[in-house]
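Lab manual, section 2.4: Encoding a predicted structure.

Procedure: take the sequence of the chain (431 residues), apply the prediction step described in section 2.3, and record the output as C-alpha cells. A sample record is shown.
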Amino acid sequence: MVKEEARNLFEKFKQAVKDHHEFFGSSIPLIASENVTSMAVRRFYLSDFGCRYAEGKVGKRFYQGCMYIDVVEDVAIKLTKMLFNSEHVNVQPISGVTANIAAFFALAKPGDKVFSLSVPCGGHISHHRFSAAGIRGVEVVNYPFDMENLNIDVDKTRKLALKEKPKVFVLGASLYLFPHPVEEIAEIASEVDGRVMYDASHVLGLIAGKQFHDPVPYSDVVTASTHKTFPGPQRAIILSRAELAKKVDNAVFPGVVSNHHLHSLAAYVVACMEMLEFGESYAKQIVRNAKALAEALHSLGFNVVGESLGFTESHQVAVDVSEFGGGDPVAKMFERINIVLNKNLLPWDDLTKTENPSGIRIGVQEVTRIGMKEEEMKALAEIMWNAVNKKKSEEELRRDVIELKKEFTSVKYAFDESEIYAIVESFLSEL
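Recorded output:
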C-alpha cells in the first residue's frame, strides 16, 4: 500500500495540475518566451519515442532499435533546412541554453573574448558568465549600446573590436524589440577573424515566417529554442555553416547531450510542418498584434519603450512602469487579474534593480496563436490601463479578462488533429 503521506502529496499534485489548467484557461498569457502547441504536435509528443534512447547520429547509433528514430531525425533535419536554408542543421539540443553551451564550445576556447549585450540591454543570461558563456570560460565584453536607437552601436563596436579582438560576436536577445545589425557585425567580425553566433530563440518563428531579418547568411552559427514564436515543443536547434558541422555536432554529442528527448523531436517535426504551411500568416499577425498593443498602450498613457522607432518589430512590447511602482508589483498585480507577463530590466536599469526593474515585457505570440487580433489588443490595453490606475476592482478586472479570453480557446495556424497522419504521409512522400 502507498503510504498515507504519499497519497496526500499526490492529491496535492493532482489539484495543482487541475488548478494550473483552469488558471491558464481563463487567463491572457503574455510571457514572451512561451507558446502553446497544437493537438497534432501533442499527439506525437506522447508517442513511444519518449521511452527510448538514441545516442549518436543518424545511422551511427550506440543502441539498436533506432531505425525509425533515424527516419524521424533525418526528416527533422530536412524540414529545418527547408525553413531556414541552412548549410548544416543539428536538431539534438534539448534547450536553448544547451544549444548555446554547445555553440560556445564549438567557436571558442577558455580565455577567449566574446562580445554580447548586457542583460539590461536585452542580452540573455546564457550569453554571460553566469551561464553558458561562463561554463566555457570565455571573457565576456558587453557591446556599446545606443540608447536612442535601442540597439548595438555599430561604430563604437568596431572600435572596441579592433582593440579587444573578440573570437565570437553574440547577437540575438531576450528583450528583443528590433533586429540587430547582423550584417554590419559580420563585417566587423571578418576584420578581426571572429565568428558570429546568433541566438534566434525569441524570433525563430518570425524568421521562419519571413517577418524578421534573416541572420543565417551572415552568421557562422545560429542557435534557437523551438517554443517561443516558433510554436513547437521545448527543445532547440543549431544551424551552422558546413565548415563548422563537425565542431558543432561534436559539441552537442557527446559534449552536452546524450539522448536528446525523442518525444519532443517527433513533436518538433509536426511543428516544422505547421510552420511551413502557416508560418508566414502566423508571423505577420504576431507583428501586427505587437504593434497594435504597443500603440494602444501608448495612446492610453503607458510609457511604452521605443516610441520614436515604432515601438517594436518583433513579438515583444516593453513598457516602463516605474510610475506605477516598478515591474515587480505591476507584474504581480496583473497576475492577480489573470494577465500573465514578467518584470524586466530595461536598458537604463542596472543589475541592482533585478528584483524590481523599471519594466515589464509582453509577448503576443501565444494570444496570436489562439486567434486574437488587433481589436483584442486594444481591449487588452484598456484592461491593463484600468488595472494600473485602479479604475476597477481586481475582481472586476479579472472578470473582464475572463470575458475577453472565453472566445479564444483553440489553437489556430495549425493542422487539424484528425488529419495529421494524412498530412505527415503527404509531406514524407515529397521528401
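Check your result against the sample. The mean pLDDT is 94.
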